[in-house]
Amino acid sequence: MASSNFDKFQKRRVITSYFSVVLSVFLVLFLLGLLGLFVINSKRLSDNFKEDIVMTVFFKNEANDSILKAFEGELKLAPFAKDFKYVSKEAAAREHKKVFGEDFMQFLGVNPLQNSFDIHLKADYVTNPGFSKAERQLRKNTMVGDIVYDKQLITLVNDNVKKISMWILVFSGVFALISFLLINSSLRLSIYANRFIIKTMQMVGATKAFIRRPFIIRGIVLGVIGSVLAVIALTGVLFYIQTNFPTIDIFKDQLLTILVLVGVLVLGVIITGISTYFATQRFLNLRTDDLY
After folding, report:
1. What angle do CA 84, 89, 92 make, to 5 degrees?
2. Which residues make beta-bridge pairs with 54?
3. Residue 202 pLDDT > 80, yes or no?
4. Residues 48, 39: contact at Cβ < 8 Å?
5. How much is the pLDDT for 104?
6. CA-CA to 67 of 20 to 30 Å: which in 122, 215, 226, 290?
7. Which residues of 159-198 are buried (b: 16+ CB within 10 A; e: fewer)?
8. Cβ-proximal residues to 56 (8 Å cutoff; 6+ apart), any chain
């Protein structure tokens, strides 16, 4: 009876250790996968943010419709323009009234606003030199009255993008090391529960390679299970982002996305295989007295 209870206890402990390994592999690889997906999409995310910065070109009152149409044609051919929008002075007045709740034309009698174009530059041009180059080209049009954009915001965005990129690389390296240590620790605990079996097999003449093999295979199987769960969870996150934030276009780089998901599977196999090998080797090299 006592032996039966002990066997049940041992079985529960082994199952618990297996579950902890799968959970550790899943959580670590899921977070690593998220980090990888963020890295491959970080440039596009930063580009989207940069391309939200607006350059507004105001035209003199003398500019007629033909001049505005010609300018629109120039913007379509301009290498720096991602997209643009024409805002008439009447539309600007309506927007002003909508925002501030006051119709300034009632007491001014005239509309002092100007016709304008809101231009979004391509990400490669969203630097102070890039904006300056675009501004010089646009000012060649004698009907352009003024050009307005936020120089400080451009500097701030570019500086922050560089800092974030650097910290992502540092964080990726540190997290990869921590993930290996966590998975290795979980696998060592699962093998620790079988340390007496390992030593018994060794005492009856089994070779180290023969003893290691089933443990390594089992570790890889647990790694594959955790990796597959991580890939399923990552795929769910991708579809959630695509459904709720379609402007990000998370599936644009399909090849890189597939490589990250495959990398998660491969990494799960490699880490669990290597960790199991060294953990098993450690108990093979212990003396019998050190097992207690």
Report:
1. 75
2. 120
3. no
4. no
5. 62
6. 122
7. eebeeeeeeeeeeeeeeeeebbebbbebbbbbbeebbeeb
8. 116, 117, 118, 119, 147, 148, 149
User: What is the pTM assigned to this prediction?
Assistant: 0.63
Q: How far is CA 107 from CA 69, 94, 102, 111, 157, in A?
A: 32, 15, 10, 10, 40
Tokens of 241: 């982002």
Structural domains of the chain, with CATH: 13-48+157-291 (no CATH), 54-149 (3.30.70.3040)
Secondary structure of 19-32 in the HEC alphabet? HHHHHHHHHHHHHH
CA 192 – CA 284 distance, rounded (Å): 11
Distance CA(232)–CA(226), nearest Å, equals: 10
Q: Tell me the two tokens of residue 108.
A: 């001014």
Q: What are phi and psi of 251, to 5 degrees?
A: -95, 15
DSSP conformation class of 15? H
Give the whole-angstrom CA distance, residue 279 versus residue 268: 16
Q: Where are the alpha helices (DSSP H) in the chain?
A: 2-50, 65-77, 89-100, 105-108, 128-138, 151-192, 195-203, 208-244, 254-284
Per-residue pLDDT reduced to its tens digit, 130-189: 889 999 999 988 899 899 988 888 888 777 777 777 777 777 777 767 767 777 776 777
| Whole-number Å distance between alpha carbons of 28 and 227 | 9
Residue that is written with structure tokens 């629109």 in the block: 72
| Unique residue bearing structure tokens 């390994």 | 21
61-104 pLDDT tens trace: 888 889 999 999 999 989 999 999 998 888 887 877 777 666 66
Give the pLDDT band of residue 24 (cuts 50, 70, 90). Answer: confident
